[in-house]
């Protein structure tokens, strides 16, 4: 495994290109993270990609559609979900990561909160850690420090089993931001370079629809943390609450939410539907004059 270089603080690309175990994740334009759930019970695609050959096939299709990174998860974090054992999670994700890192050139991230899974996934070639617990599990900070991979620190109030039963905040934006600031400081104290960190307000994780809307409206307030922002809104319950649509009919609204997040400063969007999201974001960047999109011939 190649080592990770934290960008030099003054370098032109500091904080803009994450080194995911030798594979760059270029955040000078918005990156699209494709979701690969290898679980029997995830909220929108549970069971669909549970068999590892189907999971690999799905990941390859997302890369073909333009995904910049694939996020592999073996434990459902949907509201009400219970946990799985370390062994069960390893059995689900490691064979898929091993095949994927050979088959694609984009980075593969591991969606886990367990330090044992972080270590095994990195050994199998994973290049980033996506942790919905923001490295709060015992041993997780140490694992992330030892592995020298970029880490996404996500906010969650409570735990998946109970998080949607009456979530409560005085000021959701300030509280989520303060939590993430504290986690950044804990990571930096432990020896994880700031240049390796990404933050995520955790839409739907211990938040009601109004909390989610407020966080999305004020996402730009998270820029003060001075690390890239990741947003995951794809097919989430906010859409059900506003439009009354079932999970399988949430594509258009998911693309709209991804664009709202990008407009408000997200540098990575975590999505199920890669191609439609990329088309929308590249058009947005072309009009807004940001990103790396080159002007193409007009047809
Ligand atoms: C694993 N997972 C499910 N939803 C997520 C979200 O919104 N963000 C991140 N980082 N991970 C998520």
Q: Would you summarize the structure shown here?
A:
By secondary structure, the protein is an alpha/beta fold. The protein has 9 helices and 10 strands.
Number of helices: 9
Using only C-alpha atoms, the radius of gyration works out to 18 Å
**Low-confidence residue ranges:** 1-7, 293-299
Helix content: 25-40%
- Number of E-type strands: 10
Which second-level CATH architecture applies? Alpha-Beta Barrel
Query: What is the fourth-level CATH superfamily?
Result: Dihydropteroate synthase-like
Strand content is 5-15%
Intertermini distance: 45 Å
Would you write up a description of this structure?
The chain contains 9 helices and 10 strands. It is of the alpha/beta class and about 300 residues long. The chain has one domain: Dihydropteroate synthase-like (TIM Barrel). Strand 3 (about 30-35), helix 1 (about 50-65) and strand 4 (about 70-75) form a beta-alpha-beta unit. Helix 2 runs parallel beside helix 3 (about 115-125). Residues about 1-5 and about 295-299 have low confidence and may be disordered. 9-methylguanine binds near residues 130 and 230. 9-methylguanine (9MG) binds near residues 132 and 200.
């Amino acid at each position: 495994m190649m080592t990770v270089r934290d960008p030099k603080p003054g370098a032109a690309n500091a904080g803009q290109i994450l080194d995911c175990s030798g594979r760059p994740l270029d955040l000078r334009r918005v990156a699209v993270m494709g979701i690969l759930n290898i679980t029997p019970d995830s909220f929108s695609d549970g069971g669909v990609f549970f068999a590892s050959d189907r999971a690999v096939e799905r990941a390859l299709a997302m890369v073909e559609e333009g995904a910049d990174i694939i996020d592999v998860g073996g434990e459902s974090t949907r509201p009400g979900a219970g946990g799985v054992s370390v062994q069960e999670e390893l059995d689900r994700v490691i064979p898929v990561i091993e095949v994927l890192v050979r088959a694609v050139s984009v980075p593969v991230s591991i969606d886990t909160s367990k330090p044992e899974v972080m270590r095994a996934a990195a050994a199998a070639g994973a290049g980033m850690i996506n942790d919905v617990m923001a490295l709060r599990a015992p041993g997780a900070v140490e694992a992330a420090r030892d592995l020298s991979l970029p880490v996404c620190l996500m906010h969650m109030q409570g735990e998946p089993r109970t998080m949607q039963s009456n979530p409560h905040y005085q000021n959701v934006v300030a509280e989520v931001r303060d939590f993430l600031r504290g986690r950044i400081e804990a990571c930096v104290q432990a020896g994880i370079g700031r240049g390796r960190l990404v933050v995520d307000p955790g839409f739907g994780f211990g938040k009601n629809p109004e909390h989610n809307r407020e966080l999305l409206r004020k996402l730009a307030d998270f820029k003060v943390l001075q690390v890239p922002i990741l947003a995951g809104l794809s097919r989430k319950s906010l859409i059900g609450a506003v439009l009354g649509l079932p999970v399988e009919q949430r594509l258009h609204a998911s693309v709209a939410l991804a664009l709202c997040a990008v407009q408000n400063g997200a540098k990575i969007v975590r999505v199920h539907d890669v191609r439609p999201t990329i088309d929308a974001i590249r058009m947005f960047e072309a009009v807004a004059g940001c990103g790396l999109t080159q002007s193409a011939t007009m047809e």
